[in-house]
Amino acid sequence: MATQGLNAEPVPPPPPDRPMLGITAFVTNVYSEPRDTSKKLGYLRVGTKVARSDEPAGKAGCPGGWYQIHPKGYVCVGKEATLDLDDPLLKAAGPGPDLKSALPYSYAFVRAVLPLYLRVPTAAEQEKSEFKLKEHLEWWDQNKATVQKVTLGARDVPLDERGVPIPGKKAGELGLAKNSLELGEGVLLGAQTENDPIPFWLEGGKRQIPNISEFHVPDYAVFADRARRFTGLSLIGSFPTGPESHNRRFAITTDLRLAPNTKIKPDTGSAFHGVELTDDFTLPLAFVRNRGAKSYDVTGNKATPGGELEWRGVVPLTGRLRKAEGVKYYRTKDKQFLNELDVGLAIAPEIWPVVAEKGQKWIEVSIKHQTLVLWEGKRPVYATLVSTGQAGMGDPKSTTATIRGIFQIRNKHISATMDSNESTSEGGQPERVINANVSQSGPAKERPAAKDGGKAAKDGGKASAKNKKDSGGKKDAGAAKASSKSAPAAAAAAPAVVPRRGDGEYGVTKRRGEGLYKLRDVPYIQYFASGYALHTAYWHDVFGTPRSHGCINMSPIDGHRVFLWTEPAVPDGWHTIISGEEMGEGTTIIVHE
Fold first, then answer.
1. Looking at the DSSP assignment, which residues form a beta bridge with residue 589?
2. pTM, whole model, 2 decimals?
3. φ, ψ at 570 (rounded to 5°)
4. pLDDT in tens, 358-392
5. Is 458 exposed, middle or buried (0-12, 13-18, 19+ CB in 10 A)?
6. Which stretches within 224-305 are classed as H helix?
């Protein structure tokens, strides 16, 4: 039986005296047996240190040896892992994602095309690499105070150890800790302080660690690839430089490249979140989905509007309703009525599914109401608003509708890069690859990456999306392309309006994540069917409105909460697990009208 509201059952830690190995590739696969043709159990990220066996289990295809790691599985020591815990890559990668936070990394959006530098570039190298840099820096000096402003976001909401918002605490009330409005740009871009020193691996204008990004260039290259406008970046640090580098700050991406601060804007994500349910505050509930919605008094066949309701407020219901002029009105516990067109309902099902009868955890998603409820048996423990596919109840095979049915969580990623069609570059579904071509009937469904840990996908088909040229004419070997359930179809179809310089909007991302772009390290992804996932959307704040291309978008706080609650738990130090017999069966999710 599930215990109310507790997170997934944690994996016991290893004995404290176990030797460790460290991960030196951006992604390193974990296999069920000591060979790379065996089943994948998940993967680890660069910088991770995990407990290992004393001796390798074999060396077949792996001269460095296959070591068993905690809690199970095997990793090949060599190009992607090391027994040398003093390897500079392990230190450079930092402590890894913060799983206590609604956002595991700091995030920013690209406001103008930029190179992702491999080392701290000189002023001359920047001028050679960036178009009209002098004019850009003049604009920056005049507008930086305005264009770098942020709002209170996901990290500003106090959470308990389960990831549940603390009742009575408002966004920004963090006690002694500073909220986003009180932080400087450096910390917002991932630094510990506003004046963090240049990292050891970048001292002297050189790079003392290898390039681990998927964009491969010669060792003498100044940068590896460019990031297009509207790209979302995940960051683990930042540092200022002096006049020799145009006094720019550089943010460090999770794959250890550098983004100049003048071309990115810190992003804090949405502060919206759902509510914990208790014996005293439970279903049925209504979430107010429309701005300007009003309560009503219903007499006979007439509904008279009353006071305005709080947008996305949560209103307890009695379970009774009336009809007036053909419209349903739901009765609230304070004896008012809510128009069905203004709200999304979270209610108990008329018929309980098998998992509920067994007392197991399950997730319920209503496409009509844009609501998600976490259940433990027949007891609801959390409810919120989500954004499902734009096409509503359309055919998922030919439109952007979300698939309906009963599923189980197939795999869980702390984060993975998605393109503008929400394809992950690090996992997705191992079962098959789905064509990424977009037709007039709507984008194809989000396919798993053509790469998994740097190795070509071999399951069920080949990726149809080819590497495309970047603005510098080089091939992009980064995230495999496919369909984003998160980006509006209109954004892909219509050209973005470019603000004019000097109008106060120049270079500002009007719609975060708009257009053709990549979203680095989309947090808390949980696939439940080929091409469909629950995941955090840090780039929009329209939860309660259908918006995606098929996935189920959640706010950062809700995505974090659901990820920690679902089974199985991701072992400490792992970045992704594939559920099943070895790692544990995934939580059931039921998606219906």
1. 363, 407
2. 0.85
3. -80, 125
4. 999 999 999 999 999 999 999 999 999 999 999 99
5. exposed
6. none
